[in-house]
UniProtKB/TrEMBL annotation:
Predominant subcellular localization, coarse grouping: cytoplasm
Protein name per UniProt: Hypoxanthine phosphoribosyltransferase
NCBIfam families reported in the protein's UniProt record: HGPRTase (TIGR01203)
PANTHER family xref list: HYPOXANTHINE PHOSPHORIBOSYLTRANSFERASE, HYPOXANTHINE-GUANINE PHOSPHORIBOSYLTRANSFERASE
Pathway: Purine metabolism; IMP biosynthesis via salvage pathway; IMP from hypoxanthine: step 1/1; Purine metabolism; GMP biosynthesis via salvage pathway; GMP from guanine: step 1/1
InterPro entries according to UniProt: HGPRT, Hxn_phspho_trans, PRTase-like, PRTase_dom
Organism: Sporanaerobacter acetigenes DSM 13106
């Protein structure tokens, strides 16, 4: 796999440490509340698995899938729910768990959508944030790392469905795209 990696932007150790910190913070903030983690497939699956285990209160978990980038590196701006939640979120405190916030279109749409379903609160936890690319203003409540405007893969995040199993966040060599 190292043959495809250009540069490691966030190491395995740094991810592990930051996820633990986020878990401690979320545990404090949600004590006594009915917290439901909503992971956005597929990119947030690995982050969700680690984050959930770093939270020390009972939580429920569900997943949604939305269409965003497809197999290209360009945002379409179109948000479509491909897989919806299995359960009602009325009265629940929702924490959306996402891999990357880029333009903000996806999370802007999802926050609105889940709020309209009668959730008691809707907050956002994203592993990565690319603030340079923001088009809509979305409040990010929990953030792992700020990264530059570069296409990244690893720790759940793909290029054409590959590289999700890299244990760190990295950029890819040019030849991967050609
Ligand atoms: P937004 O709606 O904020 O523009 O898009 C966010 C989504 O686009 C992320 O959740 C992620 O799925 C995808 N995305 C944004 N930047 C990258 C990137 O560098 N690499 C990959 N693989 N996906 C990205
Ligand atoms: Mg995503
Ligand atoms: Mg993708």
């Amino acid at each position: 796999m190292k043959d495809f990696v250009k540069e490691v932007l966030v190491s395995e150790e740094n991810i592990e440490k930051r996820v633990r910190e986020l878990g401690i913070q979320i545990t404090e903030d949600y004590k006594g509340k009915d917290l439901m983690l909503v992971g956005i497939l597929k990119g947030a699956a690995i982050f969700m698995a680690d984050l959930a285990r770093s939270i020390d209160i009972p939580v429920t978990m569900d997943f949604m899938a939305v269409s965003s980038y497809g197999n290209t590196t360009q945002s379409s701006g179109v948000v479509r729910i491909v897989k919806d939640l299995d359960t009602s979120i009325e009265g629940k405190d929702i924490l959306i768990v996402e891999d990357i916030i880029d333009t903000g279109l996806t999370l802007g749409y999802l926050t609105d959508n889940l709020t309209k379903r009668g959730a008691r609160s809707v907050r956002i936890c994203t592993l990565l944030d690319k603030p340079e690319r923001r088009k809509v203003n979305v409040p990010v409540d929990y953030r792992g790392f700020i990264i530059p405007d570069e296409f990244v893969v690893g720790y759940g995040i793909d290029y054409a469905e590959k590289y999700r199993n890299l244990p760190y966040i990295s950029s890819l060599k040019e030849e991967v795209y050609s």
